[in-house]
Amino acid sequence: MKLFNFFNRRTSAPVARERLQILLAHERASVSNSNLVALLHKEVLAAVSKHIEIDPDKVEIKLREGDAVSLLEIDIEISANAPARDAPAGVAA
Amino acid sequence: MPKILVVTSGKGGVGKTTSTAALGAALAQSNQKVAVVDFDVGLRNLDLVMGAERRVVYDLINVAQGDAKLHQALIRDKRLENLYLLPASQTRDKDALTEEGVRRVIDELRERFDWIVCDSPAGIERGATLAMRFADVAVVVANPEVSSVRDSDRIIGLLDAKTEIAEKGGRMEKHLLLTRYDAGRAARGEMLNVDDVLEILSIPLLGIIPESEDVLRASNVGTPVTIHSGTSAPSRAYADAARRLCGAQVPMDIPSDKKGLLVRLFGRRAA
Ligand SMILES: Nc1ncnc2c1ncn2[C@@H]1O[C@H](COP(=O)(O)OP(=O)(O)OP(=O)(O)O)[C@@H](O)[C@H]1O
Ligand SMILES: [Mg+2]
């Protein structure tokens, strides 16, 4: 047992490896989330702009991650005098 | 087709400039026409490592802004006739460098060279992103140590997202260069070993450069280590790495702890 301990002293590299693996898994996920948010921002903006004129800076998208559930918040500020776009074809008045 | 190679790392002081000089010289020694370009505006050092610090007249920013012609700024190496240096500015602000300016310089270099090796500054800011912007090959320099590996992971993410080749849907060719590797400490489990780092970063290994006094000696006299001491361990490792960059299959020499078991046991106790 003594010998075993002797050979295992000061081997901090395995700890370093484990810490890195956990940290990087987390960081890589958050980078891909920020890509997802950017993509959602673009597509939500495009979808809403078809019908209402909006300022791209007033579209706010947040992704909050919890353990059990995550929350996707989409906030779009619409100015009081924003003109509505023409109703799409096919929708009868 | 000329290759645009960026030497990058995220973390500072891991050996980017040393590696740029050594790889650039090794490529030139195998008859490629090479330009090494210093992107570390305000903190240039490649000129010093190449021993050209007293010959700098114009720099990258002068050329990018059209204040000097490329041929006026390029410094030809005194030892290797196909090796040239384009220095960074020491006095200007890094914001003086624009993407369009860099693009023009790189396009002009493309006409004259086989390899354009860009020495990136540390960090993930403008200087680093401009250095990688037009590259098609990246050498990610890392030390076997947690913060360096983490920063390398960040840089790999940027290489796959913020470069022109990535934005056009292409694939950036990435290689890992592990530098300042201390085989003894890795064997004793005091330092991440080659397999640890490869497993975590999962990009192919270009080479392992041992920690060595020869590197320091070469930089003291301003000579890339591959020219200064051609037979030293770091020099051979850099030369092999350069051959791999050119597509050659060279067996990987993993530095081993050459000391005997007894010395290792005593070394361990002293550690
Ligand atoms: N294999 C090695 N063995 C010993 N010392 C080394 C080795 N590689 C680099 N060094 C030393 O490490 C120091 C930093 O190297 P270098 O300047 O190349 O790093 P860098 O990544 O360019 O730094 P910066 O981020 O500041 O630009 C220098 O003193 C250099 O001599
Ligand atoms: Mg440097």
UniProtKB/TrEMBL annotation, chain A:
Coiled-coil features, chain-numbered ranges: none
TM stretches of this protein: none
Keywords: Cell cycle, Cell division
Keyword Cell division listed: yes
Keyword Cell division applies: yes
GO biological process: cell division; regulation of division septum assembly
Pfam families for the chain: MinE (PF03776)
NCBIfam families the UniProt entry points to: minE, PRK00296.1
Cited function: Prevents the cell division inhibition by proteins MinC and MinD at internal division sites while permitting inhibition at polar sites. This ensures cell division at the proper site by restricting the formation of a division septum at the midpoint of the long axis of the cell.
Family per similarity comment: Belongs to the MinE family.
HAMAP family: MinE (MF_00262)
Protein name (record): Cell division topological specificity factor
Organism listed in the record: Methylosinus sporium
Lineage of origin: Bacteria, Pseudomonadati, Pseudomonadota, Alphaproteobacteria, Hyphomicrobiales
Gene: minE
TrEMBL record, chain B:
Pfam families, A to Z: CbiA
Residues holding ATP: 11-18
Keywords in alphabetical order: ATP-binding, Cell cycle, Cell division, Nucleotide-binding, Septation
GO cellular component: cytoplasmic side of plasma membrane; cytosol
Gene Ontology biological process: division septum assembly; negative regulation of cell division
Family, similarity comment: Belongs to the ParA family. MinD subfamily.
Protein name: Septum site-determining protein MinD
The encoding gene: minD
